[in-house]
Design a protein that fits this description.
Layout lengths: L2 E8 L2 E10 L2 E7 L7 H8 L9 H9 L3 E5 L2 E2 L2 E2 L7 H15 L14 H8 L5 H13 L10 H6 L1 H9 L15 H5 L3 H13 L2 E5 L5 E5 L5
Antiparallel strand pairs: 1-2, 1-4, 2-3, 5-6, 7-8
Length: about 230
């Protein structure tokens, strides 16, 4: 099996990404940037990885110049550096554990996944560490994104890069909710930052601060005429 590997580094991001080609066709990536890249940063790299490894250096040089560096991994003897071996039976076993944990029958009993030789072969070719596969599978089985369905090894392999991007993207921070109508005591116990967020929340919900002729004021709900 011929494996060709390239190491991608970015000037402002510690760590690296390993791009792996098998038989001169794109196979997978290993993301070792620390901290993990956010969704925008990750897609900025993934979108420029070509299927043919011969053009990867030229593509990144034209797009990013010196900001992003692509280097081929040098060979050791007759072979190139290899990803540490991860036995396929262990990959299948981990898959089956995640599947059973997320699929129950009517009596709440775990449903077992039936793995065939073809699907096991697809997992065998996946260059990934045990820790990384466990982390990605956790995200995959909890996700409702269209590309994560159906929950099968075949779909997982076919959509692997999209699933990896989902697993390592920065989660969307949930917007805080505050009590309505305005509660002065609740407000007084908030931090300065949360007090400002409370003000924004009030404005978004149709409230306005109304002054009382120099004697303070209060938040009042504004009623619009339809």
């Amino acid at each position: 099996m011929k494996l060709t590997k390239y190491k991608i580094t970015a000037s402002k991001c510690p760590g690296y990404m390993m791009v792996i080609y098998q038989e001169d066709n794109f196979k997978s990536v290993i993301n070792e940037f620390k901290p993990p890249l956010n969704e925008v940063q990750l897609n900025a790299i993934l979108n420029y990885i070509p299927n043919d490894h011969k053009s990867i250096e030229a593509i990144f040089a034209a797009k990013y110049g010196e900001k992003v560096k692509v280097e081929p991994v040098k060979a050791i003897g007759a072979e190139q550096q290899a990803v540490p071996e991860y036995p396929v039976q262990d990959k299948v076993a981990l898959w089956c554990v995640h599947y059973s944990n997320n699929h129950k029958d009517a009596n709440d009993n775990p449903i077992k996944y039936k793995t065939g030789p073809a699907e096991a072969g697809k997992l065998k070719l996946l260059a990934v560490t045990p820790e990384e596969l466990d982390e990605i599978l956790q995200v995959y089985f909890k996700s409702d994104e269209w590309f994560t369905k159906p929950k099968s090894i075949s779909n997982f392999i076919n959509k692997y890069n999209e699933i990896r991007a989902l697993a390592y993207s920065k989660p969307v921070e949930k917007k805080k909710k505050f009590p309505l109508p305005y509660e002065p005591l609740y407000f007084s116990n908030l931090s300065t930052t949360d007090q400002r967020l409370y003000w924004d929340f009030l404005r978004e919900n149709g409230y306005k601060w109304v002054e009382n002729h120099g004697r303070g004021g209060k938040w009042e709900k504004q009623h619009t005429i339809k």
